[in-house]
UniProtKB/TrEMBL annotation:
Class in the EC hierarchy, top level: transferase
GO BP: any one term: lipoprotein biosynthetic process
Membrane topology, record value: Multi-pass membrane protein
Major location category of this protein: membrane
Metabolic or biological pathway: Protein modification; lipoprotein biosynthesis (N-acyl transfer)
UniProt keyword annotations, A-Z: Acyltransferase, Cell membrane, Lipoprotein, Membrane, Transferase, Transmembrane, Transmembrane helix
Name of this protein: Apolipoprotein N-acyltransferase
Similarity-based family: Belongs to the CN hydrolase family. Apolipoprotein N-acyltransferase subfamily.
Length: 524
């Protein structure tokens, strides 16, 4: 085969694309990532969840160097996280007493670090696999999955959450979890770009998956069913304790008075649920108060479930430990109740220091050695027993982990999550958090009770729909009924392994299918 000098240069230098100036391209990518927050709560403009990844796909499709592709992906990811997770600014600056300028730098560094996920997605898409919607969507899901475990995990801002209440697509959640919803959405977004490029054949997989999802929505299969027992009456207590007062020693008694007063008229309900750390001291320091509440609960045949820091003095070894291990926990007490759940997924630098041995030089980074030193609960814990039912628990941040919540839901009749989102003020963070709970309810086909300090306190049914909801930033009680359900969704049975296997298979096939149409064999 003979090649002209021009043809040879094109083959050897395919990375000088025609198109937008690099600076403008990076800016567009950053803005596309930043705009994604509009797709999530509280805004809920779900089409943005299609437009945002579609723009990134369109920017990456033209031929370019790996470096250019990485910068585009990095810009998109940085915009996504700097804006989408800006709620961290409230906890860092307002409650962490970090100067505003330093807090902004920390948010920017966080955005750059988390942006690497999309940076490497773009690089692999450009250099390793075939440039088409299936490989792009598969890479997207793998980077979302990696965010659930790499460097302790930060599983936030998934595309699938934008479709939590769009049941024509979220009907896939009980089948294969939030990643399946994300996959179809991103695949559809990239396929639309290919349709605009007059390559409509790429729409076929998207249309097929949308038909499957819509069929599931219309058929409305009941993956789980009511247990057949009467619904339980519940009262969720929202104390609305200011975060800057919550852990002050001199305010502890006042906090206990607030919750006791709010609960006074709720004794007699089946379940009374208090939020995360609503008792702001170890159980050994609140023996008298706890005994009084338990006595009231038993007298009125009420199950009392509360969040409390739990000190395990029985596990203390004076020869090796500086103090007994303690846990962020939830305990079931009172009538027809037993069990203690210890939080498994701790907040890095908030509840513990990751890589403790390496970072001993930063013992007071979060302002409290005690807060940073919570121990991690076992991943093999029994559910709480409540009024003849198994109750699965998730504390605050860990409800964002699909697989952790799935394991905790197995063998249960309903679920609870308790939280203290006061750390994030009036930002979008608490509302994004609530949206994740809705997705967990969908995935597992279970009702959720969600009690929080400042909101959003809510009752969510097995379809992810909010049945009852309390206003934020009010001292109030949310009353309602919950239904016990039995049976397992496909997601509960198999977890995320099927969807991850399919993604890996798609990428392998895309890699093997990436062959030059006219390989250069010789040059004369």
């Amino acid at each position: 085969m003979r090649l002209s000098t021009v043809d040879l240069q094109k083959r050897l230098n395919p990375d000088k694309p025609k198109g937008l100036h690099m600076g403008l391209t990076v800016l567009i990518a950053w803005l596309a990532g930043a705009a994604f927050i509009l797709a999530l709560a509280p805004y809920g403009i779900w089409p943005v969840a299609l437009v945002s990844p579609a723009i990134l796909y369109a920017l990456l499709v033209p031929a370019m160097t790996g470096r250019r592709a990485f910068l585009i992906g990095q810009a998109y990811g940085t915009g996504l996280w700097c804006v989408g997770a800006f709620w961290l600014y409230t906890s860092i600056h307002v409650y962490g007493d970090t100067p505003a300028w330093l807090a902004l730098i920390m948010i920017a560094l966080m955005g750059l670090g988390m942006g690497l996920f999309h940076g490497f997605l773009a690089l692999i898409f450009n250099r390793v696999v075939g440039k088409q919607p299936l490989s792009f969507a598969a890479l997207w899901i793998l980077q979302e999955w990696m965010k659930t475990w790499l460097f302790t995990g930060f599983p936030w801002l998934f595309v699938g959450y934008a479709f939590t209440e769009q049941y024509w697509l979220s009907s896939l959640a009980p089948v294969a979890g939030v990643f399946a919803v994300s996959f179809v959405a991103v695949l559809l977004a990239a396929s639309i770009i290919e349709l605009l490029r007059r390559r409509g054949g790429y729409m076929i997989p998207s249309i097929a998956l949308l038909i499957i999802s819509s069929t599931l929505w219309l058929i409305n299969p009941q993956w789980t069913k009511p247990k057949g027992t009467p619904d339980l009456s519940v009262s969720l207590i929202q104390g609305n304790i200011p975060q800057d007062l919550k852990w002050l020693t001199e305010y502890q008694i006042e906090t206990l008075k607030i919750y006791a007063t709010l609960t006074r008229d709720e004794w007699g309900r089946d379940i009374v649920l208090w939020p995360e750390s609503s008792i702001p001291m170890f159980q050994t320091e609140a023996v008298g108060f706890i005994s009084e509440m338990v006595a009231m609960a038993k007298e009125t045949d009420t199950t009392w479930v509360t969040g409390i820091p739990y000190k395990d003095e029985a596990a203390f070894d004076a020869s090796t430990d500086k103090y007994p291990p303690f846990y962020n926990s939830v305990v079931a007490l009172g009538a027809q109740a037993e069990g203690l759940y210890k939080k498994q997924r701790l907040v890095p630098f908030g509840e513990y220091i990751p890589f403790q041995g390496v970072l001993d030089i930063l013992p007071n980074l979060a302002g409290s050695q005690d807060i940073m030193s919570y121990s991690r609960g076992s991943d093999q814990q029994s559910p709480l027993r409540v009024r003849g039912h198994n109750l699965g628990a998730a504390i605050c941040y860990e409800v964002a982990y699909p697989d952790t919540t799935r394991k905790n839901a197995i063998g249960t009749d309903f679920l609870l999550t308790i939280s203290n989102d006061a750390w994030f003020g009036t930002s979008a963070g608490p509302l994004q958090h609530l949206q994740m709970v809705q997705m967990r309810a969908l995935e597992n086909g279970r009702w959720f009770m969600r009690a929080t300090n400042t909101g959003v306190t809510a009752i969510i049914d097995h379809k992810g729909r909010i049945v009852e909801r309390a206003p934020q930033f009010e001292r109030t009680v949310l009353r309602g009924d919950i239904q016990a359900r039995v049976g397992n969704t496909p997601f509960m049975r198999f977890g995320q392994y099927p969807i991850l296997f399919i993604m890996a298979l798609l990428l392998i096939l895309s890699y093997l299918g990436k062959r030059p149409k006219n390989p250069v064999r010789s040059v004369k």
